[in-house]
Amino acid sequence: QVQLVESGGGLVQAGGSLRLSCAASGSTFSDNAIVWHRQPPGKQREWLGRIFSDGSTIYADSVKGRFTIFRDSAKNTVYLQMNSLKPEDTAVYYCYTPHGNVWGRGTQVTVSS
C-alpha cells in the first residue's frame, strides 16, 4: 500500500517561493501519476496539476507559469515548486496518487501580504 507524506509548507511573504515535497513509501513512483491539490480556508479542494509516469505535466490555469511539478525517482519524491506566491495561494496542499487512491495528510502554506 502506497503512503504519501507532504512536507515543506510554512509561512512566506507574497512574491516568495516554497518547494513542497511528496514522499512515497510502499511503492515506487516510476509508474505512478501524482496529482497536487490544495484547499484554501473555507473553500473546496482545487486541482493544481499532475505529473504522469513519463514525466510530462499539466497545470491548472491559476498556477500555470508559477508552479512546477517534478520528480526525483531516486528519492521516490515528487516536488511542487511554487514561485511568485500570492496571498490567495494560502491553503493546505495535498498530493494524491490514483494508484491505490491514496492521499497525503497535507501541508499548510500561508502567504502573507
Salient structural properties:
113 residues; mainly beta; 7-stranded mixed β-sheet; 4-stranded antiparallel β-sheet; 11 strands; 0% helix; 52% strand
Question: Layout of SSEs?
Answer:
Blueprint: E1 3-7, E2 10-13, E3 18-25, E4 34-39, E5 46-51, E6 57-59, E7 67-72, E8 77-82, E9 91-97, E10 102-103, E11 107-112
Parallel strand pairs: 2-11
Antiparallel strand pairs: 1-3, 3-8, 4-5, 4-9, 5-6, 7-8, 9-10, 9-11
Question: In brief, what are we looking at here?
Answer:
By secondary structure, the chain is mostly beta strands. It has no helices and 11 strands. Helices cover 0% and strands 52% of the residues.
How big is the Rg?
Answer: 13 Å
Low-confidence stretches: none
Characterize the main sheet.
Answer: 7 strands, mixed
Gross geometry: globular
Number of strands: 11
**Mean of pLDDT:** 94
Computed structural class = mainly beta
Count helical runs: 0
Helix and strand pattern:
EEEEEEEEEEE
Q: What is the percentage of strand-forming residues?
A: over 45%
Helix content: under 10%
Distance, first to last CA: 40 Å
Account of the 3D structure:
The chain is mostly beta strands. The chain has strands at 3-7, 10-13, 18-25, 34-39, 46-51, 57-59, 67-72, 77-82, 91-97, 102-103, 107-112. Strands 2, 4, 5, 6, 9, 10 and 11 form a seven-stranded mixed beta sheet that branches. A four-stranded antiparallel beta sheet has the order 1-3-8-7, with no helix packed on it. A hairpin with a 4-residue loop joins strand 7 and strand 8 (77-82). It starts with a strand and ends with a strand. The model has no long low-confidence stretch (mean pLDDT 94).
